Amino acid sequence: MKTLAFVVLGGLGLLAAPLGARAVDVTGDWAITVSTDQGPISATLTIKVDGEKLTGTITGDVGTIPIEGTAKEGDISFSFYYPTGNGDIPVTMTGKVDGDTVKGTYDAGTEGSGDWSGSRVKK
């Protein structure tokens, strides 16, 4: 009886490993809001994923800016340069995708940091 229990429990363990490592689809368009000291900024995030490599664009008040980063199991991280009249500001954004929502934080160095969130744009 102990052998049967061991085999069953061992088999369940093998099945659970792939389920925990399921890929989360982050590809697509996302309507996001970035919280800043000057107020909320709305933008559209367009994400493409190849393996763990994330590419795409962020489109907002200053136009469309290319992004690059990583996506793994629903965790995303990407960087871009936000243009200003005084030079470009490097920005890094990280987040967690849960179904059709995303939440995370951003860091813009000396310009500040904060939270951002969004939802997948339905086609």
Report on this structure.
The structure is a single chain. This protein has 123 residues and is of the alpha+beta class. It has one domain (24-120): Lipocalin, CATH 2.40.128. Strands 1-2-3-4-5-6-7-8 form an eight-stranded antiparallel beta barrel. It contains one helix and eight strands, in the order αββββββββ.
Give the topology, please.
Blueprint: H1 2-20, E1 28-36, E2 39-50, E3 53-60, E4 63-72, E5 75-84, E6 87-98, E7 101-107, E8 113-120
Antiparallel strand pairs: 1-2, 1-8, 2-3, 3-4, 4-5, 5-6, 6-7, 7-8
Beta-strand content: over 45%
Count of discrete structural domains: 1
- Beta-strand segment tally: 8
- Under the CATH scheme, the architecture is Beta Barrel
> What would CATH call the class?
Mainly Beta
CATH topology term: Lipocalin
Q: Features of this protein?
A:
123 residues, alpha+beta, Lipocalin, 8-stranded antiparallel beta barrel, 8 strands, globular, disordered N terminus
Summarize the structure.
The chain is α+β, with helices and mostly antiparallel strands and 123 residues long. Helices cover 15% and strands 62% of the residues. It has one domain (24-120): Beta Barrel (Lipocalin), CATH 2.40.128.
